[in-house]
Amino acid sequence: MTKPATAPSGPPSGDAPPGDAEPGGSPAQPQSSPHAVPVARSARRFGDLLFSGAATLAGLSIVVTLAAVFLFLIGQGFPAFTADAEDLPGEQNFAAYVAPLLFGTVWAAVIALVVAAPLAIGIALFISHYAPRRLAQGLGYLVDLLAAVPSVVYGAWGIVFLAPHAVPVYRWLERYFGWLPFFDGPTSATGRTMLTAGLVLAVMILPIMTAINREVFLQTPRLLEEAAMALGATRWETIRMTVLPFGRSGIISAGMLGLGRALGETLAVAMVLSATDVITVNVISSTNPATIAANIALDFPDSSGLAVDALIASGLVLFALTFVVNYIARVIVARRREFSGANA
Amino acid sequence: MTAPAQPAPAAVRSSLAGRSLPAWAPWTIVGVAIAVGLLAGVSTGLNVALGIVLGVLVALVAVPAVSTVVEGGRRARDRLATLLVTLAFALALLPLLSVLITVVDNGTARFDATFLTDDMRGVVGEGGGALHAIVGTLEITAAATLISVPIGVLCAVYLVEYGGGRWLARAITLLVDVMTGVPSIVAGLFAYALFSIFFGPGIRFGIGGAVALSVLMIPVVIRSVEEMLKLVPNELREAAYALGVPKWLTVVRVVLRTAAAGIATGVTIAISRVIGETAPLLIIAGATTRTNYDIFDGRMETLPIFTYQSLMNPGARPEFGVDRAWAAALTLIIIVMLLNLVARLISRFFSLPSGR
Amino acid sequence: MKLMKRQVAVLGIALTAMLGLAACGDDEENGADTPSPGGSSAPAAAEVSGTINGAGASSQASAMEAWIAGFTEANPDATVNYDPAGSGAGREQFTSGAVQFAGSDAYLKDDEVTAAQETCGGDFIEFPAYISPIAVAYNLPGVDSLKLSPSVIARIFDAKITKWNDPAIAALNEGVTLPDLDITAVHRSDESGTTSNFTDYLAKAASADWPYEAGGEWPTQTGEGAAQTQGVAAALRAGEGTIGYLDASQAGELGIAAVQVGDEFVEYSPEAAAAVVDAATVVSGRPQYSYAIDLPRDTTASGVYPIVLVSYLLACTQYDSADQADTVKAFLSYVISEDGQAAAAENAGSAPISDAQREQAQAAIDAISAA
What we know:
B: mainly alpha; 2 domains; flat; C: alpha/beta; D-Maltodextrin-Binding Protein, domain 2; nine-stranded mixed beta sheet; three-stranded mixed beta sheet; 16 strands; about 40% helix; about 20% strand; elongated
């Protein structure tokens, strides 16, 4: 990589001596490998072992937890996979039951991500590189706050505010862009459509994505940016050449977090979306596919028996979907590691 | 570090870009364009919003065009980027502000002393408060944080410092991503199923809610902490090793210390992510009207559930319930605001002197 | 897999039994100093002090709020919790012994009856406690009153009638100017007792125009779905030309259609709603203390409003602790009392149950005892 920031190595070197002193008696055993430092090997080993052990254990706990969730979903949802069609909700087999839900989940999340990702990068850049410092702090604070608004409130906001105000826009879209399958209409009279749900999701995932992007952008080594500027680069060129490449892994992480939340969001979608079991790309009519999580929330309370199994099995499908999406994303990101500071 | 950087920009600007737009020019163009669009929108009977959109579009074309003529292509692109970034910001701020204003506007009606000191026991219709929900939210979220932060930070440390591309690290990285996608309601069902095995069906207590929230919170902690750890320059680690500092001390006192500010932000983000959760808590923490301080025994109300139920089942005279619901949402936002403040103080306390 | 599940369930039940006993002991310590053994004292008179938990229908949530408040006012040491988690969840938790009582928009199914009897270690009781009229509400500025027949309602919700000025609607509403506006029929997108009662009404009263079975899940793909009662109310308010069905107390300022019964058009009222429940027949072949009813939706009797939601309360006839038995008994007695029903009517807009139903329910409640 480049040669950034040896300057801020002041604090660590200041911290290091006490750390070095703890093992004690450094001059005692002079002969050892030149690399790993000689002193008090066993004590040091113990500390390292304990710490790496704890870290590994924490990592493993993730595996165990997820395995448990997975087993839970399989155990509870399995009857639905094998059940006869007439016993399941809607009297269709499980694949037919889950297909519209799966489509709706992906569709809503895609809309949300397409809207939110560029906006999140824009806000983060604005806060980190464009806004005056004082304003930037206030704005960052405001955005962080919004990450905590309960999804219920976003849902209520969607119904009360966004949906009615979106209707004229949807009418307009239908009139002039009706030839696109997305805006085929007929426009919903209440505005509770897939596009509204996608927009609410986008608003919901914006704060969390912005927060991560912002933190990452702020971490861009100052020297890189100054070097670019010294070469006469404009602000945008500086950002394009230093900030964005440096933050790419973080941007993708933020995107994955946002996507995860969008895929799994329950109540806001359940409240905002007018849903039934169809597959359609039309985003402005009142006939929309539901999402898996919203469907669970809507039907779980009043379901019993096999219907519950089917709902949990659909949860398993969502789980699998998240797995696949993330796997693909990881494969794409895999090449981008050289910008990690910890790539040694 | 390098001194020559200082005078350079001025020199470059004067010699290479002989002509440049004055600072006020682009914003004036934007203002004029929007005003014209607005005027056009109003006068033709079209939508006002449509007029503004039109004006912005015109500005997006006009500013780079003028800049290209006066300053050349590179600066024009810079101006366009500035405009786009600002636009993205303004565009995103609109709904966020709208949400915030909605909550504050509706929430202040019932946000009073009674609301903070009373619970809902025996209250029908008017009056009542959210003390029970505030207590529940604080305790459950605190417990979830206590569970999630150590696991999350250690796991991130493992991924960045120890995993080193091993298959386990790769698997965990993927699994963490998958975990971010666990629907909140599934986390609740899972926690309920887990505790039912030990405590029998019908188990409802706060700590179960904390476990359910942890399932949602841990991946967020890991993700954000991992990003922060990755950004710690390798030179720092190498410097520490060179000085003979053992690895674990390097991690604790150099890497984590350097990343402390970012970690504090990450933890706050994670708390914000789960503090507003409704569905899982409804299943495992239950709902009650009584203030319960014991997280290990009995149902606990939380603010999001209080909001949800007051909003969804407001009774024959909805206004009281609805007012309480918004006041509860406002309370939640204020709690998070205070939390953010604390996190900012922590990160200021820890932040290292740097160029920024 | 099924087998495994069952084993887990059995294990769970065994554990509950053990822990449940321990827990009950705790409760007694926390609550009463004098647990009256036998527990057959007069139900309403003596103060009780147990903690009981219930779960179930969200339709009863507002009424339950009023009941719990009224009951704990008279019995300050008693605690009653109710999770409005949904009827299905309520029945599930009741039959697995997780809660002491449950509210449900439907009576127990046959397999649930068996499970409930097993869990209760004897029999269970089941009676209608909450009667709520369902309004057919619409948002049509300028139209203050609207008359609809079952067949027209069915065709509107089946998207066979799509315009407000359709001749079929106009024929019922002479003298009313109906706009040339698209109809948006709003239904519940979640599975609910309201939908179940409404589709049951359509299937029985307009069988020719409603080819679907009654059920909690909305059967057609047309129209607009909205979550929960409040979602439907919000959707109705948000769009002009909308029509939907919802808990009458939540209709607010929306227009409410008068529904054709026989030759007359009836607007909902608590009395008209209670009348249809009075005319109901008790379902036969049920356990002794089950007062499950079938409503005569296609009635042509005068002054009866047939679109109502009936919600049941479920409890065991036997409880392990006397404290619990007493509390359940006292609480349910309060619920069906005139005071209780009046409190529910005020807070939830429900229709009070009749004296005949109160007598039946009281007989069932009196059967509750401690093991």
